[in-house]
């Protein structure tokens, strides 16, 4: 029986390392030519499957595929925020038709909570419709909220280690600025991504694990009010003369003019006001015990695509879990997500790759452990530092450059010939 083809796609917000999971899948499939035929990339995630826009990745050389290691974000094959929902029968039928038309036997979907739900729906669709298809999920999310509360299904998600490293460096550098300019700007407010789960702002503690700097961290889970934040800042100014406030974008400051994406999640970066600005405005109404005012910074999507800050550990693990997903597909079949688990025995930091049923991780939501929030509620514990510190790695990533600029992978935009009538995804059709 000739090898059948593969479709790999990405969904949700990108990361520094998402393309490394893609690289792992492509290279692992290429190393098993008797098991896998052509590898197609769904252009802009599951939407590319629905629209039959399948990039023929065999048209891209091994050298370019290798450059995916240090090519950030989703510029390779694209991503989406389209979700297959109950009742979208025509979308599900279309997925079956496209996979049949292109003799697709394996589907890999890289993404977070909602993406694993899509992978799970496709796996169930294959089973219930008699479609000879293996669907496997590959984890990805900077929020680190995929998996279970006990960290037994997934220790951490690819993407988190790099954003944690970004904040460790960002806050360290911001401290130098604040220390030098505090006579005029004694308070610096930094807003961190993380809708309602505090793993990202918590990573600010990695900038100062010995707690020597005047840093306060406000997770959404801290349960503090804006007024309590102000009181804490004033006390810090009384003792240190300056204060760095790291606040989650989901910290409750009232209405910020919320805008939601297609998954139903608030897009704080697109909202009418930023949490940081509201905090700054409020702090500047208070009477500080030192001269000067508060200032704010809101890092944008660079926190998830700044490849210069990527964790080498994260890059390696994203690649490893991508390759492992191919082994899961070959040996275990339909309905799994490849996972990363930390070895709890022995010294040092080591991981191994495993698998978890898609039905257990689909739409899962792991919250920041309450036991990792310090009693003050403006810091995290040493247990969190012990958990997160290995994820940011040691060395700087080496990014190939040409004429002083980063050299990213160039995926040939060669598409599989369309075999089906044009199709508009149901949700997009409804909006139109």
TrEMBL record:
Q: What is the name of the protein in this document?
A: Pyrophosphate--fructose 6-phosphate 1-phosphotransferase
Pathway connected to this protein: Carbohydrate degradation; glycolysis; D-glyceraldehyde 3-phosphate and glycerone phosphate from D-glucose: step 3/4
From which organism does this entry originate? Paludisphaera borealis
- Looking at the UniProt record, the site noted as Important for catalytic activity sits at 140
The UniProt entry lists the main location of this chain as cytoplasm
Q: How is its activity regulated?
A: Non-allosteric.
Site-annotated residues for Important for catalytic activity and substrate specificity:
114
Q: Does the keyword Cytoplasm apply?
A: yes
């Amino acid at each position: 029986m000739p090898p059948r083809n593969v479709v790999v796609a990405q969904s949700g917000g990108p990361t520094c390392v998402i393309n490394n999971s893609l690289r792992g899948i492509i290279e692992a499939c290429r190393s098993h030519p008797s098991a896998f035929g052509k590898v197609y990339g769904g252009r802009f995630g599951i939407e590319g499957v629905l629209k039959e826009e399948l990039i023929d990745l065999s048209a891209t050389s091994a050298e370019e595929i290798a450059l995916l290691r240090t090519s950030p974000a989703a510029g390779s094959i694209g991503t989406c925020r389209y979700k297959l929902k109950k009742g979208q029968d025509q979308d599900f039928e279309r997925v079956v038709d496209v996979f049949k038309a292109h003799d697709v036997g394996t589907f890999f979907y890289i993404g977070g909570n909602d993406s694993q739900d899509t992978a799970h729906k496709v796996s169930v669709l294959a089973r219930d419709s008699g479609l000879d298809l293996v669907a496997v999920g590959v984890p990805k999310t900077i929020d680190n909220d995929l998996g279970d509360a006990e960290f037994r299904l997934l220790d951490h998600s690819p993407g988190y280690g790099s954003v944690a490293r970004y904040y460790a460096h960002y806050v360290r550098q911001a401290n130098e600025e604040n220390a030098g300019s505090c006579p005029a700007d004694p308070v610096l407010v930094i807003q961190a991504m993380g809708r309602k789960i505090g793993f990202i702002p918590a990573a600010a503690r990695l900038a100062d694990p010995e707690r020597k700097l005047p840093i306060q961290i406000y997770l959404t889970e801290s349960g503090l009010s804006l007024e309590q934040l102000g009181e804490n800042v004033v006390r810090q100014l009384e003792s240190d003369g300056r204060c760095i406030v790291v606040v989650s974008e989901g910290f409750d400051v009232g209405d910020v003019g919320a805008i939601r994406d297609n998954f139903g999640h608030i897009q704080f970066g697109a909202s009418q006001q930023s949490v940081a600005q509201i905090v700054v405005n409020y702090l500047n109404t208070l009477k500080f015990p030192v001269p000067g005012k508060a200032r704010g910074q809101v890092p944008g999507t660079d926190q998830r695509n700044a490849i210069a800050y990527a964790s080498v550990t994260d890059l390696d693990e994203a690649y490893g879990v991508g390759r492992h997903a191919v082994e899961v597909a070959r040996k275990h079949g339909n309905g799994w997500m490849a996972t990363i688990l930390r070895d709890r025995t022995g010294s040092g930091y080591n991981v191994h790759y495993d698998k978890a049923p898609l039905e257990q991780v689909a739409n899962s939501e792991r919250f920041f452990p309450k036991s990792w929030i310090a009693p003050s509620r403006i810091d995290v514990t040493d247990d969190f530092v012990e958990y997160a510190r290995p994820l940011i790695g040691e060395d700087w990533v080496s990014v190939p450059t040409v004429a002083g600029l980063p050299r990213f992978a160039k995926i040939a935009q060669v598409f599989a010939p369309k075999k089906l009538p044009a199709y508009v995804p149901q949700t997009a059709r409804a909006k139109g």
